[in-house]
Design a protein that fits this description.
Helices cover 34% and strands 15% of the residues. The protein contains 5 helices and 7 strands; from the N terminus they run H-E-E-H-E-E-E-E-H-E-H-H. Strand 1 and strand 2 form a beta hairpin. The termini are far apart.
Length: 193
C-alpha cells in the first residue's frame, strides 16, 4: 500500500515540476528585439511593450511594440499557436513614457490596465497601459484619462477594432465595441449588394 502511494506522490511532484518549467520567464529587450508586426527595433518606440511566448519556444517570444497589439494577437481567431505566457511592461516602474524599460515585465493577467487614455502607444495607436499596482493605474488615469480594467474585462474592441493613427482613443470602450459591430454589419450589407 505504501509503494503505490509513494509512486503517486512522485508522479504528482514530477507533473508539478514539468508544469512549473512550462511557464517561461520574460526576455530582456535588446537591440535584437524586433516587433512581430512592424519588424522594427523595440527600443526605438515609446510606450509599454509586450512579449508573447508560444509553446515550444520559451526563449524566443514574439515582441509587440504596443500592448494593444499583443492582446489583439491573443484574441484573434486566426491565432493558431498555444500561448504559454504574455508579459507586459509595468509602466509604474518605467523610467518614462519614451523609455519604458527593458526588464520591468509583469504577467499580463496580473496587470491593471488604463483603457482609453490620451496616450498613444509605440505605433501611434491608442494603448492599453499596464501597471502592477491598481493605484499606479488610477494615478495615470487621473492624469491622462481613461479607466482602470483587468485584462479579462477589456472589451475586444479596445484591442481588435481598427484605428487610424490620428483617431482619438474611445472614451467609452462599450461604445467603441458597438461602433465596431456596426461597421462590420455595414461591410456585410455592402458585400451582399
Amino acid at each position: 500500500m505504501i509503494r503505490p502511494m509513494i509512486a503517486l506522490a512522485f508522479l504528482a511532484l514530477t507533473a508539478c515540476k514539468q508544469e512549473a518549467q512550462e511557464t517561461p520567464n520574460p526576455v530582456t529587450l535588446s537591440a535584437a528585439s524586433v516587433g512581430h508586426y512592424c519588424q522594427m527595433n523595440m527600443l526605438e518606440h515609446p510606450g509599454p511593450k509586450a512579449q508573447v511566448h508560444l509553446e515550444g519556444l520559451p526563449d524566443a517570444p514574439l515582441f509587440f511594440s504596443q500592448v494593444r497589439d499583443a492582446i489583439a494577437y491573443q484574441r484573434m481567431p486566426e491565432q493558431s499557436h498555444a500561448i504559454t505566457a504574455i508579459f507586459v511592461s509595468d509602466m509604474g516602474k518605467a523610467p518614462s513614457w519614451e523609455a519604458p524599460g527593458r526588464d520591468n515585465w509583469i504577467a499580463a493577467t496580473e496587470a491593471h490596465y488604463v483603457v482609453g487614455s490620451n496616450k498613444k502607444g509605440g505605433m501611434g495607436a491608442p494603448e492599453l497601459v499596464p501597471f502592477a499596482s491598481r493605484q499606479g493605474a488610477e494615478q495615470f488615469a487621473a492624469r491622462h484619462g481613461g479607466h482602470v480594467s483587468r485584462l479579462s474585462d477589456i472589451p475586444d474592441a479596445a484591442a481588435l477594432a481598427p484605428v487610424a493613427a490620428n483617431d482619438p482613443a474611445p472614451e467609452n470602450p462599450d461604445e467603441a465595441q458597438q461602433g465596431y459591430a456596426e461597421r462590420l454589419r455595414a461591410l456585410s450589407r455592402g458585400a451582399d449588394d
